[in-house]
Every structure is written in structure tokens, then in C-alpha cells.
Amino acid sequence: MLHAYPIRFPAQLRPHLRALRKMRGLTQTQLGEQVGVSQARIAEIEANPGVVNFEQMLQLFSTLGVTVSLQENASASRAFDFATDHSVKQAKENRAPASDDEADSFKTSKDVQSASRRNFSIRQKKGTW
């Protein structure tokens, strides 16, 4: 039987990481050997999951035989839609074009509509986040 463990905050991972390791019959040392880190590092991760980046956490999950699945929260989705629509409208109303070319591109551009019928704009990626 598959189990789902909803996680919204890093602190919620603490009991799950330890329980998953124990369900697999692994000690911290054994798990550390499989992942390529020390027992002390596994203990640190179990105590504070926020000490690793997402890629490292995915590697740990893979070793423990679990996957990550994102599920949209209906109430959060509605709040996000409202906030996004409002901020996009505000940005368009308050922002003056930097040049005549940019003003022309606003006049001729069309919003992109996704399969979910939500309007969004595609912008170039600048830098990293």
C-alpha cells in the first residue's frame, strides 16, 4: 500500500526521515554509507532537514525508496490566482514603457493562455534565483 505524507514545512520532515530509515532497517551509519556521507551528517539532517539543499534531499529520498510529488492545494490556488491577477494588472497600469519600441510591443503582444485558461506572460529568464 502506498502512503502519502503531506509536508508543508521542513520541520515536518524530521519524523518522516527517521521513520523511513528505520522502516528500511537502516542505521544512520548504513544510510550515510549508501548516500556517501557520515553518520554524523545523517543525524544532522534528521534533526534539521533544512541543512541540505533540495538536490541532496532528493538523493536521500531516492535512497530511502520514496519520491516527491507536488499537489496543488485548492484554497492556495485560488489565493494565488487572485494575487497574481491583481499584481499583473497593477504592474501593467503603473509601469510606463521604457521606450517607443517597448510601447509598440505592448500594443501588439497577446497574453498567452494555458490549458487551464489562466492568462500569463512569458518573460526571459534573468540570472538565477
TrEMBL record:
Pfam families: HTH_3. It comes from the Bacteria. One of its GO terms (molecular function) is DNA binding. Residues 111-122 have a biased composition (Polar residues). Residues 17-71 form the HTH cro/C1-type domain. Residues 87-129 are annotated as: Disordered. This is Helix-turn-helix domain-containing protein. It comes from Noviherbaspirillum sedimenti.
